[in-house]
Amino acid sequence: MFSSIRLLNKSTPDLPCRFVSSQVKTAVVMLNMGGPQHVDQVHGYLNRIMTDRDMMQLPFQNTLGPYIARRRTSEVQKKYAEIGGGSPILKWTNIQGKLMCDRLDKISPSTAPHKPYVTFRYVDPLTESTFEQIEKDGAKRIVLFSQYPQYSCATSGSSFNAIYSYFQKKQFPKDTKMSMIDRWATHPLLIKAIGSRISDEINKFPESDRDDIIILFSAHSLPLKAVNRGDAYPSEVSSTVHAVMEELGYAYPYALVWQSKVGPLPWLGPFTDDALKGYVKQGKKNFVLVPIAFVNEHIETLHELDIEYCKELGEELGIKNIRRAAAPNDHPLFIDAISDLVLNHLQSNKPVSPKFLLRCAHCTSSRCHESKQWFSNVCTST
């Protein structure tokens, strides 16, 4: 299945001149939530989140959502100010995309030139502007590449639904082929990249404390209502955790914990801060936090994990050593992973996965049903 991995480190001759033209043959569209580049974008970002029914369902959402966004804007702006004034997620996604497409141009000349495009759900560059640019560039093939390794209806699903909505307002170009990579929770090179990040942090602990380390894999939580509906996210995050621990030889005790709960409704736990408090009560003093569902740095890693948990909560609890593993970012193994994913996808005859087309067991969303039907019709192998 991953036979093409060996191609990633194999040198190839320079591309023929026809692949160096300005014409884009393959557009690789990197889908993610996004983050404000500066504090002035925070309100619009929050407003889009709070009014997106794929992300959350609120009563009187068109009224209550904007109200919550306004109330939270000042608090969230302060957090972004504390990490440098904005999110680095666009910077990292651009770096990852360029490195990936440079690699793809070398290992897959038949589908070159490849160009990365970033599509964020809640902040620029938004779906509309990205697809307008793809059309202007004349791409003949579009690969929708979710940057959430583990699929959730609230994240990946919302991004795909936004693309569906965009093409309800205009005709999909007949001479363009589109396909998708919707999940990749256990890709072996992703697992190796995360394992490498963890080992880097463990090696920074005093040798005398390494036998006492607990690895806490922290992922964005999900409302229990979504979990009970049948959202695949918790099981897919768990599969990533177990694959990483297998890569590490199960050498350390570990737990999967959940962060970033919003609002009063029940969410999936145990929560990251509560888990730290519980383990400290048990006498544990050394921790590595791992952002298991994030492929690049943003507010949840740089503020919530680094400032709120490692620094502030760590000091409050008197934790001896607490470190946070870096997100994959531009780790060479991670660039190999995303390059291999796209390469295998381009070589396959599976434009859309059967799992993507399966709705949650208790799904009642007509939008979800219509979106999946549309992708099933548009994403074809011919």
Question: What is the strand and helix layout of this fold?
Answer:
Blueprint: E1 26-32, H1 42-50, H2 61-82, H3 89-107, E2 114-120, H4 127-137, E3 141-146, H5 156-166, E4 177-181, H6 188-202, E5 213-220, H7 224-229, H8 233-247, E6 254-259, H9 272-281, E7 286-291, H10 299-317, E8 321-324, H11 332-347, H12 354-357, H13 366-378
Parallel strand pairs: 1-2, 1-3, 3-4, 5-6, 5-7, 7-8
Helix pairs in contact: 1-2, 3-11, 5-13, 6-8, 6-11
Pfam family, one: Ferrochelatase
Membrane topology: Peripheral membrane protein
EC number: 4.98.1.1
Written description of the protein model:
With 382 residues, this protein is of the alpha/beta class. It has helices spanning 42-50, 61-82, 89-107, 127-137, 156-166, 188-202, 224-229, 233-247, 272-281, 299-317, 332-347, 354-357, 366-378; strands at residues 26-32, 114-120, 141-146, 177-181, 213-220, 254-259, 286-291, 321-324. It is globular and about 65 Å long. The two termini are 22 Å apart. Residues 1-21 have low confidence and may be disordered. The chain has 13 helices and eight strands. Strand 3 (141-146), helix 5 (156-166) and strand 4 form a beta-alpha-beta unit. Belongs to the ferrochelatase family.
